[in-house]
Amino acid sequence: MDYLDPFLQLDHFQAQKPSCMPDHPSRGFQTVTYMLQGSIKYSDFCGNVGTVTPGDVQVSQSLKAIILEGGGIGTSTNMADTLRGKCRIYQPTVKSAASNV
Known about the structure:
Layout: E1 8-26, E2 29-44, E3 49-52, E4 57-62, E5 66-82, E6 93-97
Antiparallel strand pairs: 1-5, 2-3, 2-4, 2-5, 4-6
């Protein structure tokens, strides 16, 4: 499986109706989300909670195992990549940059 690491995923998320992403595990990923319209609320078991609104950027690192949940309505573009094994020992982090619009 070494040929799959690192792995890069790009996606365009669009929810016309309120959606919910129930509790789900994540480990060893770094995700960058850019919100185009609408909003997404998120939380994790480490106490990180927030809302991503249009123009906002969020960087989330689920280094150790983490349980996430979220949901909302709107459109976003996401990029996720795997992190090397030695990075997976650190605590998860979430950093957000709010739009000035």
